[in-house]
Amino acid sequence: MRGVLLGATLLLLLGSLPAWAETPAETPVVTPVQAGGILDEAWGRREDALAQRHRTVIAAVDEGPALANDLAWLDGLVPDRPGGSGRRGLVGQTLLVPRQLSYPAFFVAATRVTNAPDPTGRYAFWTALIVMVRDDEASPWRIRLESWADGPPEARRLEQLLTADSPERFAPPAGLLGISPEQFADRLSPHYRQFAAQPIDPLNVFAIGLASGSQLLCFGRQSIQQENRPWWNPAKATANDPRGIAEGIYRQLTSTYQDQRCALVEPASIGAPAATVLTREESFVAHQELPATPPPWLPIALVGIVLSIVLTAAVWRLRPRAASDEAVKPEVVFLRDLERQTVLAAALRALMVALIVIEVERWLVPRSLFLAVTLALMVLGQFAWRLIPRWRTLTCSARILVRRPLAEVVDFVGDMRNEPKWQPLMVAVEALPADSSASLRRYRSTQRVGDGLVLEYESRVTQTGGQQPVISADLLGKWFPDRAEWRFNAVPDGTVVTLTRRVELGPLRAISLASLDKHRQINREFTIGDLDGVNKAMRGESVPADGAPGRGLFREYNWMRRLPVIGQSDLAISVASFIGCWVLYSRLLGDWFATGIMLMLLVHELGHYVEGRRVGLMTRPPVFVLLGAFVQVQGTRLDGLTHARLSLAGGLTGGLATAVTLALFVVTGSPHLLPWVAAGAAANLFGSLIPFITVDVEAILLVVGRWLPAVGVFAALAAAGAAAGLGVADPLIPVIVFLAFVVLRLRYPGRWQRDQGALPTRARLVIAAAWFTLVAYLSLVFFLTTGWLV
């Protein structure tokens, strides 16, 4: 009996041995039921450690992206988190546990989280996806990823997706339909131009199947923003910087951002699978900074003060050559030469504008595609409509009653040798040998087009008879079609004379002109002036030498004269325009900065005003307009040196004011004065010194004469060097600068300098050096201050 019992026991034991040996190999390391308890225990420990700010315990419960995010929250780098800053409790969970027979192991849990109840007894809920991992049997389970649904609709959809199958079952096998989880996670990562995305760590990517056949992909990724700024434009951090960086200015600033996401990956019938982001958690987790040293503001300010005084003394010591007793003969420019030069200048100007637009587009496209497209359409549209012949043809018609018989008026106007009697710009007109046709006559005319410069051209005059005679005068030129048509009608009181002037602008001239309306106005004034001159000449009255149609600057602002009360006083217009511009700028840029801009503009314009009064000119108080201001000089022809000094006075005065304001910034330490320095540099640099923007610079550089191209080469090289120093090595920049000088030179043919050679070479080079030095200094101050402020 004992043997039977012993044998049975042995058989039982031997039969049980295979089962004991196979159990570890077939049993999963974690089941859904076990995962629920693991999550509850880890969540509670983590929330207690966060409330107590116990970093050691947090590091024992979290790892990877979840640990980095929680530590960043403790350091104040993550200002907010779902559920608030108190202890958050779990009130529900849905588990996705893959069948895993060995380590490392993981599972995903969709959890409903709530904060402490409010006084009304209601709860607020958030839904999170948690990924927990265990590296080996000796390691504890830790939270590795944590991401949150954006709102209640997203949370409900997430719960519906995960509860489609029983949570007590193991999740289906994972797979991403022919693409690795790392590659798919890279596609779902947000890419920012200023960030360097770090490689995705495979340990931070988890894929798990759903009962529907779709996949749940969870991953974490870091991106680094590296700001290696130049010394003149350091990185900034304010007191309320969301990254938690101490307020200051830094030469180098490294910011690390982290993104945790879970996405639903669904198969597609054609092409790559589709993905929908279900939960996300984006935060700034780390920073590293290197403080920057400010520029030497005080030496820069002192250099500016000294430079302004020295340049002013050097320019105002210049004297023109002694006037010669010999009368200076005006230089003659032939129409064909003027046409070629004008067309060449127009082509180069159009090229310069095109290159500027290209530069702006290259800067705008990566930043704002909408603005880039808008600018391109505006520029192309403006050029396109100017190419239409109708719009670039300037036509004006006017009439006047001349109290003389018809035949007398026709004979007087038909003989173009009488033109100097009614048009003061005409120097002389001579008849050329007549053609076979009696109705066709040719004349050679000489017309003043500038101080010391006359234009010689030929015209063809055709006369048709009848009761209403018509005289047509056509300019003989290839590029400048100009036709004046005189019509005469006899009336009881005399003769009605109708003059129609038609000017056709070539395509290049049309697209290179700043304003077609201004040229239409000039054509109208010439037409009316000719009719008025004919009437006076027929009455025996003389036309004054300066009786040419007025081309006074700033005619477009004469509407200010019609304003009630204000329009009756130059000073009132000045004060009212100052206040109006200040109000506009203050709404756009703030009161303090608007005050700085207006004060710097005022100082600049007062430089022009005081210099004009000093040399005995009739100047009006400054008038302030949008993006600028001006001082009007009335009824005086200036020599080249006086005009250059008058224009340079604004820049020198403004440069001195900018340097003094910079010195006050150093002495007082007030940060509000540095924006004024930037405003002063901009107002003087872009307001009077840039060749292709302003008017003042023309008067400054015209006296340079034949040295102007050399100054252009020097300025182009300086611009290229400055651009390279600023990190913009662009070959188009020096080309644009040089083209600006060439266009300025070609706009004034022949002896275009107003002083007619009265300035020696040394004086011309002194003015060029003063202009260039002032531009260089203000450019340096502008880039330093704007870089330091941005």
Overview of the molecule:
- It contains 21 helices and 20 strands.
- Helix 7 runs antiparallel to helix 16, helix 8 packs antiparallel against helix 20 and helix 16 runs antiparallel to helix 17.
- Strands 1, 2, 3, 4, 5, 6, 7, 8, 9 and 10 form a ten-stranded antiparallel beta sheet that branches. Strands 11, 12, 13, 14, 15, 16, 17 and 18 form an eight-stranded mixed beta sheet that branches.
- The protein is elongated and about 125 Å long.
- The termini are far apart.
- The protein is of the alpha+beta class and 790 residues long.
- About 4% of the residues have low confidence.
Uncertain runs are 8-25, 547-553, 750-754
Number of strands: 20
Beta fraction = 15-25%
Number of helices: 21
Biggest beta-sheet profile? 10 strands, antiparallel
What percentage of residues falls in helices of 4 or more residues? 40-55%
C-alpha Rg (nearest Å): 41 Å
User: What is the general shape?
Assistant: elongated
Structural class: alpha+beta
Distance between the termini: 100 Å
Mean pLDDT metric: 82
